[in-house]
Design brief:
Blueprint: H1 40-57, E1 86-90, H2 91-100, H3 102-106, H4 109-112, E2 119-126, E3 131-137, H5 147-158, E4 174-178, H6 183-192, H7 202-216, E5 219-224, H8 231-248, H9 259-270, E6 280-281, E7 291-299, E8 305-309, E9 312-317, E10 320-329, E11 335-337, H10 343-357, H11 364-385, H12 387-390, H13 396-399, E12 411-412, E13 417-421, E14 430-434, E15 436-441, E16 451-453, H14 457-468, E17 477-478
Parallel strand pairs: 7-15, 8-16
Antiparallel strand pairs: 1-3, 1-17, 2-3, 2-9, 4-5, 4-15, 5-12, 6-14, 7-10, 8-9, 10-11, 13-14
Helix pairs in contact: 1-8, 5-11, 6-7, 8-11, 9-10
């Protein structure tokens, strides 16, 4: 008789940061908050995008499906995970399901949310079954990764020519929200008209905010690397629009100061008008054209980092941060890179990045994008190492899937904000307004430096556990 298999050890508990931050909508306003941070006008601007989000998400089930969490079909492992579960998902089985046709797939609610796997931690190579198994955890507080997200990411990684941005320069998924051409010239005109307004009065600040928003016009949506009308595109735009509101002070994130707030604090310390923030107006201030900052989501420097052992690749680091660059208004009213850095914009990006590095902002828009960064980076690792080719895994059925179409608007309402720091004196009256461009870039450039050989035996044990706990060859998902 063959010797009995060694006992199976449970997977180690996932590493979860202990510091948790959140966002407060319409909570008590301190004396330092922006003048319209919890006013009805700000809420209206929030609702504009929330209506788009509601339409996009209404087509999908929630991450947690009620039930005991036990496998509904022990032989096939078809039930979704519940909070805290470790989840294994077979790419081969998903490809076979995709081959069966869209009607059968749409009827499978567990498949629609990738069986509850929403925090990818790596993958295991199952040579015996010619399979690659994604593994990770279900975190019920985070949004679900949809099967459509997986299909869109796989299509971009393995067949970028079908999703490439026009012109071919951006093969990775990205988005941006940009003002109309000539908008900055219109902003200059709106600012010239403001000189008769007493901005110490709230009503006048509201008038100026509306004039600036009207001058900027609708923010044009740009999507690249993927189809306009898929959920991943909405996730990127949702996160970008939320970040715009935080940068301008419409929404408050604990530990993160808006660009205008940083400017006012800096000017109070220096008791003067600095060069770092050009949107400074006053009776004796000289404004040399309007300027603005661009912020976008990106992976942190030297991320992702993967640990490698026999038959397993584990995500060690994959943090999402904010990058920024300064832009200025050209003679024709368009925006151009201005060179140099805006210290206030850099400080905002640093503070928000510090919160994002914790991995648990408790802000749905950011967590949704973080989940997909981890999934996309893991798929890029598989493709870079050619592990799918090594075991002849056929991904063509997934490449040919047609994701649900979710209409993307061509533009979103412009955002602007004003905060007045009225201190009459030798330096004049100072008023600050903020405008930002933004976006999200899922660019992942891998080299051998992004993979480190692990000496930790625990990683090899995890690979063995994933393989030994597989119920049978055709199982789609299982819990070790």
């Amino acid at each position: 008789m063959p010797s009995p298999a060694p006992p199976v050890k449970p997977l180690p508990a996932p590493r979860v940061p202990t510091n948790v931050s959140g966002v407060f909508f319409g909570g008590p306003k301190s004396s330092e908050s922006f003048v319209n941070a919890d006013e009805p006008e700000a809420k209206k601007m929030q609702d504009d995008k929330h209506r788009v989000q509601a339409r996009a998400r209404a087509q999908f089930p929630k991450t947690v499906i009620p039930g005991s969490g036990q496998l509904s079909n022990a032989a096939r492992g078809e039930a979704p995970a519940i909070d805290g579960d470790t989840v294994c998902v077979s790419l081969r089985a998903l490809s076979e399901k995709a081959r069966s046709g869209s009607l059968a797939m749409r009827a499978d609610s567990a498949l629609a949310i990738c069986y509850g796997l929403n925090f990818v931690e790596g993958y295991v190579i199952d040579e015996a079954n010619k399979d690659i198994v994604l593994y990770g955890t279900n975190r019920a507080s985070r949004p679900a990764i949809q099967f459509d997200d997986l299909c869109v990411c796989i299509l971009n990684v393995w067949n970028p020519e079908r999703t490439r941005y026009v012109g071919g320069q951006f093969p990775y998924p990205f988005c941006s929200l940009d003002p109309l051409a000539g908008a900055m010239a219109a902003v200059d005109e709106a600012l010239a008209d403001r000189r008769n307004l007493n901005l110490s009065e709230l009503a006048n600040r509201r008038i100026l905010i509306q004039k600036l928003a009207d001058a900027l016009g609708p923010q044009q949506v740009r999507i690249g690397g993927i189809s306009w009308h898929v959920r991943l595109a909405h996730v990127m735009i949702d996160a970008d629009y939320h970040m715009k509101k935080v940068s301008q002070g419409h929404l408050i994130v604990p530990g993160v100061r808006s660009v205008s707030r940083l400017s006012i604090e800096g000017q109070r310390k220096s008791n003067g008008i600095g060069e770092s923030f050009r949107k400074i107006l006053g009776s004796r201030a000289h404004r040399n054209g309007a300027s603005m900052s661009r912020f976008w989501f990106h992976l942190d420097k030297k991320h992702p980092l993967f640990l490698v052992a026999d038959g397993i690749v584990s995500v060690e680091r994959c943090a999402m941060i904010i990058l920024t660059e300064k832009q200025i208004s050209a003679a024709d009213g368009t925006l151009q890179d201005g060179g140099g850095d805006d210290p206030n914009a850099q400080a905002f990006a640093t503070e928000l990045s510090a919160q994002l590095r914790l991995g648990q902002t408790a802000i749905r828009e950011y967590e949704d994008l973080e989940n997909l960064y981890r999934l996309y980076a893991t798929l890029k690792a598989i493709q870079f190492r050619q592990d799918e080719a090594l075991i002849a895994l056929d991904l063509n059925p997934i490449l040919n899937c047609q994701p649900n179409r979710i209409e993307m608007p061509t533009s979103l309402p412009a955002l602007a904000n004003v905060e007045a720091d009225i201190q009459e004196g030798s330096n004049g009256r100072r008023e600050y307004f903020t405008m930002v461009c933004g976006g999200a870039s899922m660019e992942v450039i891998l080299s051998n430096k992004h993979f480190q050989r692990s000496r930790n035996r625990e990683l090899g044990s995890t690979a063995q556990l994933v393989l030994r706990s597989r119920p049978e060859k055709r199982a789609s998902c299982w819990k070790p």
